[in-house]
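Entry 14: structure prediction run for diphosphoinositol-polyphosphate diphosphatase. Input pasted below.
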Amino acid sequence: MSQFAAMDDGQLNPPDSKIPQLLSPNHDGAGQLANNKKEYITSGFESGTSRPPTPHGPGLPANFAEVVSGIYRSSFPLPDHFESIKKLNLKTIVTLVENEHSRQFKKFIKDNGITSYVMPIIANKDPKIFTSQNTVLEVLRILFNPDNHPVLVHCNKGKHRTGCIIACFRRAQGWSNTAAVAEYIKYSAPKTRVLDRKFIEAFDANRLCELVDRVGAQYWVPSNLSERKDLRSTPGCHLNGNPKEVGECDGASALVLPSDPQQIYGLATCKLPS
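Run finished. Output tokens:
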């Protein structure tokens, strides 16, 4: 029996107690679509006080950044952002919260042929309630699959849930825990969470080693997105293509990541057999 309940509009609604299992892991741990049909998924409003931020006007969403070439992060895209997002030519959007997609968002996804996943990540506010690593792995398998690129991953504000997922992505790439947490702080400050940092540190990046090695993701880096004026948001402190940009944001000068990639990737977490 399907894990999804059919909605009146023909879309799929994942059960409240389960995460959408849209990927079928094969023998080497790589995820793949169970079928080639695009599935557009929505679910109920997120329980809690977190809501998408007020749009700052035309441009890209708040906390938008290029993680690596073909992978982007942001807050929840709103109608004011659609024109700019369209220029990314997205194939996939991964939503990390259970907010019901607006009619405009559903139309944007359908009109642009985007595959949409809703894979809720629990906010790390209670040490007894947290997202399983299996769920994190499912999200990361989508991000590490080049067939899904360009892909945008987002939560409501692009800070904590998205920050944790991207930090785990960085750990799988081979970043040290210190560097991964520093990037998390860059986007979540001044409201960082100790439980988020513990969550990032506890992530077992070795479970993705074979996939990362097979697609060469340890060598993925940002493109020259910061030079594309047509994709700049307003204000423009969201791009991650150039580490020097971090210092241009208020209060972020102490969080500048090393400009030498070897200083970031120097402590690889993967221990592949020789």
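Notes: The chain is about 25% helix and 10% strand. Will compare against the previous run tomorrow.
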